[in-house]
Amino acid sequence: MSTPATASVRSIDPRSAPRAMAFAMHGLEKRFEIVASNLANAETAGHKRLIARSELFSQELASAKASDPAAPDRSVVRDFTQGDLLDTGDPMDVAIDGPGFFAVELNGRT
């Protein structure tokens, strides 16, 4: 008679559960904010959407480490793909065709 295959089960320290749940809720709140921002700016010319990177969020949740508020959030990235170029007929409108950014000078600083 063969023994049934057993799946490995990870035990969770009950003291860390509230912290992990709070971290998960914070992540979900951030995702809702991203979706709301993208929807609110869907018709805004030049808006670059934000993308929640779930694989990085899952890795951070699995570790459940306290994050440094000043550290960059790697679970959110900005989509810099080029949008459609539209001729508005206004000679004051400008656009970049290809990769790059506009450099703006203000008070002698770029």
Summarize the structure.
It is built from two helices and two strands. It has 110 residues and is mainly alpha-helical. The longest helix is centred in the N-terminal third of the chain and has 24 residues, at 17-40.
Structure, described:
The chain has a domain at 17-78. 31% of the residues lie in helices and 5% in strands. The chain has helices at residues 17-40, 54-63; strands spanning 50-52, 76-78. A two-stranded antiparallel ribbon has the order 1-2. The longest helix is centred in the N-terminal third of the chain and has 24 residues, at 17-40. The chain is elongated. The relative contact order is 0.11.
> Could you give the distance between the termini?
76 Å
Separate helix tally: 2
Order of SSEs, N→C?
Answer: HEHE
Number of strands: 2
Which overall shape is indicated by the principal axes computed on the Cα atoms?
elongated
Strand content: 5-15%
Low-pLDDT residue intervals, each spanning 5 or more residues: none
Pairing-aware structural class of the strands and helices? Answer: mainly alpha
Helical content stands at: 25-40%
What Rg, in angstroms, do the CA atoms define? 22 Å
